Amino acid sequence: MSLIFTDEQRKEYKRAAEEKYAAKEKEFLRTAKIPTAKFYQNIPVRYKKAWLKSHLGEANKRQVIAAMCYNCAGYEDTQNNVGNCNVTLCPLYKYRPLQKGKVK
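^ thats the sequence. predicted structure below, dont judge the formating
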């Protein structure tokens, strides 16, 4: 079995993944409580998929922590706000993404 994909196979895989995500998003919005659905709709498009995966329990630990940190930063200037976070009382502080170096 070859692990090299043709452009057509890659496009088909991407299309199938997008359809799967769209179906999950539609089901989530149909079953979610109104405040949660409104919150989700106000998340920038770039972060919606990560938030949804973490909310549905389909994300790994790193993805869940990143989604939480981006939410805490208000989805604005995440590279700077999350990487330079100074909320040391946060239990996720030493695990946050985008750190410039090791945290002691």
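The CA atoms of residues 18 and 24 lie 10 Å apart.
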